[in-house]
Design a protein that fits this description.
Length: about 230
């Protein structure tokens, strides 16, 4: 259930179900399934126009605006295309420009806005370009495979360029507790921070906890070389 005051695109449940069937049929016709087909019902330029209309409405009262965009990930078929990395690079260039344009729009309308830009997953470009449970064992999984699936971009822009210590954020789920701590000038929201252990079903049983790899080729090593605990 969508609970935002306004949202785009305006799809009813039946329309959403219909678009899923259309994506399935399209995959059959072109010979492969792409997970992003279901989410591509609105032309990109139209999506941008709607987004900037929201951004440019002014700040008569505080607003929370959420937008979800590229570069996405591989097509999750379980088999990498020959040019999978190049296709991701093309999408990444578009997403980077969109990010810069988003920031410019927001800062022009509300210089005091809090801007959070984060990825929700990695690109999935190594091995089979999807989760690793079906074809791989834990001993096949290395640091790059984990970074490729769990590593995600994060940037936070606060008023007056106030900093949040990087050590305060171990997972993306820590972002909002830290923002609420900042707004309230307390640490009261730390209790809402979840466990730092990742799921095991994404990477053949290998998982990350407190930044340390458990299992696989790089067992007991940090996820990112040079990271400080």
């Amino acid at each position: 259930t969508i609970t935002f005051d306004e949202f785009t695109p305006h799809l009813t449940q039946s329309q959403s179900h219909s678009s899923a069937l259309e994506a399935l049929f399209k995959g059959i016709m072109i010979g492969h399934f792409a997970s992003f087909e279901h989410y591509s019902q609105m032309p990109y330029d139209t999506f941008l126009d709607h987004k900037y209309q929201y951004f440019d409405q002014g700040i008569a009262q505080p607003r929370f605006v959420y937008t979800h965009t590229g570069p996405g990930h591989s097509q999750n078929s379980g088999r990498c295309r020959n040019n999978e990395a190049e296709l991701f690079e093309e999408r990444l260039k578009i997403a980077n420009q969109e990010m810069k344009d988003d920031i410019a729009h927001i800062e022009a309308v509300d210089p005091g806005a809090i801007i959070i830009i984060n990825g929700d997953h990695g690109p999935y470009l190594t091995k089979n370009c999807t989760t690793l449970d079906e074809k791989y064992q834990g001993q096949d999984v290395n640091r790059l495979d984990l970074q490729d699936r769990y590593g995600a971009f994060l940037a936070i822009r606060l008023p007056q360029n106030d900093p949040i210590p990087p050590s305060n954020i171990e997972t993306l789920a820590d972002v909002f507790p830290e923002i609420f701590n900042y707004l309230s000038q307390t640490t009261a929201f730390n209790v809402f921070k979840p466990s730092t252990r990742t799921l095991k079903n994404v990477s053949a049983g290998v998982y990350i906890e407190d930044g340390i790899i458990h299992g696989g080729i790089n067992d007991s090593e940090p996820l990112f070389i040079g990271q400080k605990k």
